[in-house]
């Protein structure tokens, strides 16, 4: 399909990108979600500003107790990062299962969080970690906690002129793991679960049960109250109403949530 005509500029600096956003342009990062939408004409931005030249938005650095991950850091770089594997494994593991190698070579953490697909893996990992993003526009910056970032189906709390510039996660997140269920290796999660063990407390977030990722608070309550993983699993999908669709019934997805939350916690405990 031939996409609509769109103005295109490649930003040479962050300020230039922010000025373009102020003037109404839409940012493009790895293009792995936006280009398919444009091909289907489900998105028709009049102007695109390409973030691909902004090296200052790439890479992982330590700042105090946090890892600061540049928004343009690719899934592949997250998956291969020794620092993340040691200190914040769940991000590396979630990124290692995103799509295919081709998708991981281009797709970025900032793009994944801003796109907010209801089956995306990284928003759930960020939520389990109680992470945050730093966003900027031409007049300033602010921090958005993971719990406040995704507000609905493909919608975030970002304003149109705001760019995610970095993602902040604990540098010593404790043991953590990501478990997803998908039909084929390159597929999106039907359901996915991120588990983080902070001391003796378990934090779990689930993707695929609704419009946005959710903390499995029923599951957390049982485990953190001394209950078994089997009992906790029955409450993993509590408070959610997944759709009956071609991937399975709501009941099946609730079952998956329990299985995957348990698997992720077990994997984290064994790590
Ligand atoms: P883009 O496509 O460039 O942009 C996506 C959206 O985010 C656009 O609205 C854009 O304007 C906005 N945006 C981009 N960067 C920023 C920023 N820094 N600040 C503000 N807004 C920004 N994802 C998964 O989680 N799990 C999967 O298993 C998975 N499988 C996939 C399989 C295939 C075949 C494909 C094509 C994609 C898959 N994805 C999957 C999606 C993939 O992770 C994308 O990389 C991601 O959703 C978007 O990242 P991007 O850098 O490509 O963003």
What features would you describe in this structure?
The chain is of the alpha+beta class. The chain has three domains: 7-50, Uridine Diphospho-n-acetylenolpyruvylglucosamine Reductase, domain 2 (2-Layer Sandwich), CATH 3.30.43; 58-170, Uridine Diphospho-n-acetylenolpyruvylglucosamine Reductase, domain 3, CATH 3.30.465.10; 181-270, Enolase-like, domain 1. It is 34% helix and 25% strand. The protein contains twelve helices and 14 strands. The strands form four sheets. It has a five-stranded antiparallel β-sheet with strand order 4-5-10-6-7. A hairpin with a 6-residue loop joins β13 (201-207) and β14. The protein is globular and about 55 Å long. The protein starts with 6 loop residues before the first strand and ends with a helix. The site of flavin-adenine dinucleotide has 29 residues, from β2, α2, α7 and β10.
List the helices and strands and how they pair.
Blueprint: E1 7-10, H1 14-22, E2 26-28, H2 34-39, E3 47-50, E4 60-63, E5 66-70, H3 75-79, H4 82-87, H5 89-96, H6 101-106, H7 109-115, H8 122-128, E6 132-137, E7 140-145, H9 146-149, E8 150-152, E9 155-156, E10 163-170, E11 175-181, E12 191-198, E13 201-207, E14 214-215, H10 217-224, H11 229-233, H12 250-270
Parallel strand pairs: 1-3, 2-3
Antiparallel strand pairs: 4-5, 5-10, 6-7, 6-10, 8-9, 11-12, 12-13, 13-14
